[in-house]
Each structure stands twice: as C-alpha cells, then as structure tokens.
Amino acid sequence: MSTKLIASLCPYCAVGCGLYLEVDKGIAKGIEYMTDHPACEGALCPKGNALLEILNHEERLKYPLKKVGDGFVRVTWDEALDLVAQGLSRNLRKHGPKSLGFLASSRCNNEENYLMQKMARLLGSPNVDNCARLCHSPTVVGLGASFGAGAMTNNLLDLENSKCIFAIGTNFTEAHPIVSRWAQKAKDKGAKVIVADPRITSTSWMADIHLRLNPGSDIDLLRGMMKVILDEGLADLEFINSRTVGFDGLQESLSDYSLEEAAEKTGITVGEIANAARVYAKSPASALLYSMGITQHVCGTDNVKTCATLALLSGQIGRPGAGVWPMRGQNNVQGNCDMGGMPEFYPGYKKSADPKTIEFFKAGWGVTELPPGPGLTSTEMNDAALDGRLKALYIIGEDPVVCDANVKKTRQALESLDFLVVQEIFMTPTARMADVVLPAAAWAEKDGSYTSMERRVQWINKATEAPGEAKEGLWIICQIASRMGLNLPYENAAEVLEEINRLVPQYGGMTKARIAKIGGLRWPCPDDKHPGTGILHTERFSTPDGKARISAVQNTPAGEVTSPEFPILLTTGRIVLQYNSGSMTLRSASLQERDPELYVEMNPQDAVELKINAGDMIVVITRRGQAEARVRITEKVKPGMVFMPFHYHGTNILTSDALDPIAKIPEYKMAACRIESKA
C-alpha cells in the first residue's frame, strides 16, 4: 500500500488543530483525524474537513506571471525574480528605503515571516506589517501595556478549569468552533457562561446570561461591572496591592460613575450588569474571552485594556481557569507577530524604536545598519502610497483589496504604486493588480513551524508537492534577497528556526525536534530543557517591575454615527462556513453550497418599515460605497442595526476606515448605512 499518513495542521483559524493527510503518490487524497492532538482531540470544523478542496484546487497558481496590458503572461522564475528585484531596487535607489513596504502573511510559517521582516530591515525599510493590524493589533499593544505580553494568558485546555466564562465581542462557536468544545466541558462541570454581544448567536445560545449591549458600549459595560465589584467589596485587594499599579486611578475614575449611567449607555438593565459582575468576580476561576468585537473599534486598544483591568481587579489571572483569552483569527497570526512582522517590533517583541533593539539585531545579524521604527502600519501604507511616499509594495498571502476597511481607498492606493508584487496561492483581487505574481506553496507543501492562539508552536513537514512550478516562500524570499545584494544563505526552514532559537528568547528551546512532536510546545520556552509555559503571569507579569498596569479609561464615541441620511448601524463578523477574505473558502464547493453569497441580517421591525421581504436583494449604502446583499430577516439583530459577514467581496466596500489612534486598526464594527431596494 503506497498511502502514507503525514501529520499536518489545519490552515484556517488560530486554534492550531492537528490532522493527518492521507498522501498517495505525492497527492493528498484524504484526511484522518488526529485524536491525540491536545487542542482539538481529533475534531475539525467544517472548514478543516473541507481543506483538501483548497489544496488540490484547479485554480491554484502554478507559474510566475507578469502584467502585460490588462492581463498576465507566464514567465520563468528567473525573469520573475529579476523583475521583482529590479522593481524594488529601482525605488530603493531613487526614493530611499522608506519608499518600500512589506506585508508578511499570517498564513505562512514562522520561518518565512521571520525572513520577510529580516529582508525588509536589511534593505533599510522599517515598513513591515501583517494582517494582525486589522484584527488584533490592539491585543498586541493593549495586553502588552497591561501585562507585558500581548498574547493569551492561559491555553485552550485550561478553559475546562474555568468556573465562569465571560465572552465579550466574540462569537467563538462560529469563528473558532473547536474552542466551544472546551467551553462546553467547563459548562458541563458547572461553569456559568456570560456572553456580551448585541446579536443573538450560537455562542449566546450556550449562555446563562446574555447581555445584549448596544454596539460600541463595551467599555461602559465593563466599567459598570467594575463599579459593582468595587462597591460590593468583591475586588481582590491582596492581588491588587501585591501585583498591580494604577488602582487609585481606577477608583477615582469610577467614583462618579453610576450603574444607571452604565445601563443607559449599554441598553442593559442595572440588574443584569450587577448580576454579571457578581458571577464573574465571585467565581473561583473566571476566563475572559474576546475577539474582534472588542478590537475593531476606534477605542480598540482601550477596550482591550479595560478587559485586562476587569481581570486584574478581580484577581482573575495567573491561575488555572483564570485569565484573558484573545481569540486570534489566522493560523499563524500569533507567530507572525512573534517574528517581528509589525513595524512596532523586531522579533520577540523588542521595541523597534529602542536603540538597544537595533544594537541587539545588528550584532545578531552581523550588519552595521538597521532601521529604527516604528515604520508604517498597513493602514498607513495606503495613505503613504496615495501621497507618493510609498512607491513599491511586496505582499505575501494577504488580500487587502478585499480585507481592508473602505477597500475603494485601498484599490486607489495600490494603483498609485510604481511597483506591486504579490506572492499567493490563488489569483486574488489583490494579485490581479500586481506587476508580478509569484506562485507559492501552501502549508502542506513545505516544512515549517506555526504558532497558534494559545502560544502553541508546532512543526509540520512537507506532505505533498506544490502544483506546477509553485515554490516555498522561504526559497522565493532568499532568491529575491540575493538578487538585491543581501546574504540570506538559508537552505531550509530548520536553519531559520535555529536562528530564531538564538535571537527570540521566547523561542529559545523551541527546537525542531521538540516542536515536531504532536502538540509542540507553548512559549515562553527559553531553553531546550524548559517544558514550555501553559499559564503566563503566575508569579509576576512580563513588565520591567513584574507588576500589571490597571487602566482607567473612558469610552470613545464611534468614528461614525447614524444620521437621517444613514439611519442604520452596520456591523460585521465571521460565520462558520467561510474564512477571512474568502480566497480559500469561496473556492470550496462543499462550503459554498451551504453559504454561497453575501447576505445581510435585518430585524423584522426594520424590514416592515422599509417594505423589504426575506430573500429580497437589497443595496446597502454607506458614505464609502454600496454593495448588494440578500436579506435574512431575523431577531438575531436589534432594530436599527444590520449584520453582514465580511468574507464576501462587497462588505468592506462599506466599512469605516476610522482608526484607533494607538493600534491603527480600522473600526470595522461601526458604520452608518441606509438600505434601499434593488431597482
């Protein structure tokens, strides 16, 4: 029998589920469940079960392409790589290194992302970013400011130990279905579940308490809960005094804040707020889970800091079942940030503006010059392209023409560039705008490590051959670097990992041999004897003085509010059968037949007023553009608001690009719209 079982990982969300690929004559023909994988215990969500439809899809990019007129022609790898090197070098010479931008990919492995940011910085450009800018940049900076580390404090398995699960701004049963297994285990053991979400979702179905707060009022709710905790003596003063700073400022900021004010702003009753606060604070171990319903606001960083502060105020951190669980979106978005794929940080979260960081990496990389940061974020790169400061952009595995807020502006920005290169597995809308398109190997077609949302680092070996002439990203980056006069002499991902082990302290003991075992290891793992870390901050926080920072913040009004012209609030989110930009799942036949098109959820009351029926095609209009969608009439959304999944090519024509001033994330969750019948 020629069939082999090769251990692999799911390429979709950041849970990091393990699976076996059944490979026959170099082709993946089936999937076998990995029942001994610690995070998923053999389970896969619908997307994971359908992943072979993507790996073997006929539309996979197979050959390098260059733009000729309005179309593309096939070229050799030598010609394609020369074109990329020439396009980048031309702008480097003419406009300087800051005219170059680089977008690393949270679908690529750690080693590729490490080399991407290293190449950018060796060329002198501080402008390197990734899709975390659009989903969890407030987690990186917000939790980093609060705890000293912008990552999940506990782990998925530990969720089973929680006695209270407070989910705010996350519909994890759809966005991260396997997480619901661990939440359900806790509930079966008696844990109370609190869900704060304006919508009725499959996550809210499992809630003992569903707080249907007004969109954008998360801080008002959290402050109301903290007011109850203080007034009723439920704060963990011993923990606060020994392990935090900033408590006096929080007390002062809440002194004139009333539950009645919180109720008015959130639309939740005083009793509901008080009940939720008591359940959370009195629980022996409370977990706080959040995702983009918290981060994608102009106050996203403050939202994250307030979540952290609620945990600190109650002493609900640093213990089994007690902590803060940010629910990351892409399979390696945590690893991409760990590897320095952000303008604020070099690898290992060493601040790019710190001269000590520059000296450390100059010594580590054996060079005399490196650019200090922070460089441009992905959202700032659009502005820089529009005003002529950014001339060339190298994008790996990202689709900003679909994913960015206000994508009309993004398209204009990309059109303004002198040179655009896109490295992808499919011809995405962004790739269609490129001067050169480079066909890349997918996850199962290369070696490398990936870091899940729970800091779990896992290695997978190449299982199948890439289609046509598609190449591993590591090879492509090294070839381009060589043509530009850089020395990146890496033969394989294992060599890159050895350098990461040396220069990224959290990964010091993450050797290939150790993380290749099923389940890998969780960082920090500073040396090859360390067992990895399941729970952060058990004795001290990762701040210089070891103490966490309690924050006292007020809510910030949304960047856009409803008006007579745009009377309805539009919010966006994930659904279980699609994934991010849809570049993969929209090509999956088994998923498409169940959720094939863009839709908008509308409350029956609004439908009656607008004379709209279920199944109608309507036009959703905002200040930035319009999109057609099919109406689903449902009580899931409140009157005066509508919901659209963001996976389809249309939603982000509508979304607001108002930015959080700190994390520079757009406010996807709050846009004013109007609804019109399709003519």
CATH architecture name of the largest domain: 3-Layer(aba) Sandwich
Amount of beta strand: 15-25%
| Distance separating the two termini | 60 Å
Helical stretch count? 27
Radius of gyration: 24 Å
Which word captures the global form? globular
- List segments where confidence is low: pLDDT < 50 over at least 5 consecutive residues: none
Instruction: Give the tally of β-strands.
Output: 28
Helix content: 25-40%
Q: Based on helices, strands and strand pairing, what is the structural class?
A: alpha/beta
Q: Main beta sheet, described? A: 7 strands, mixed
Looking at CATH, which topology of the largest domain would you report?
Rossmann fold
User: How would you write the strand order of the largest sheet?
Assistant: 5-4-18-17-16-6-7
CATH class of the largest domain: Alpha Beta
How many domains, as an integer?
4
In terms of topology, how is this protein built?
Layout (H helix, E strand, L loop, with lengths): L3 E6 L8 E7 L2 E7 L12 H4 L2 H4 L9 E4 L2 E4 L2 H19 L4 E4 L6 H13 L5 E2 L2 H4 L1 H11 L16 E5 L3 H4 L1 H12 L3 E5 L5 H4 L3 E3 L6 H14 L5 H7 E2 L1 H8 L4 H8 L3 H13 L3 E5 L1 H4 L4 H14 L9 E4 L6 H6 L6 E2 L3 E2 L3 H11 L12 H9 L5 E5 L3 H4 L3 H10 L2 E6 L11 E4 L8 E4 L4 E5 L12 H11 L9 H11 L8 H4 L5 E2 L25 E2 L18 E6 L15 H4 L6 E4 L1 H7 L6 E6 L2 E9 L7 E5 L5 H4 L16 E7 L2
Parallel strand pairs: 6-7, 6-16, 8-9, 8-12, 9-10, 11-22, 12-13, 16-17, 17-18, 23-27, 24-26
Antiparallel strand pairs: 1-2, 2-3, 4-5, 4-18, 14-15, 19-20, 20-21, 23-28, 24-27, 25-26, 25-28
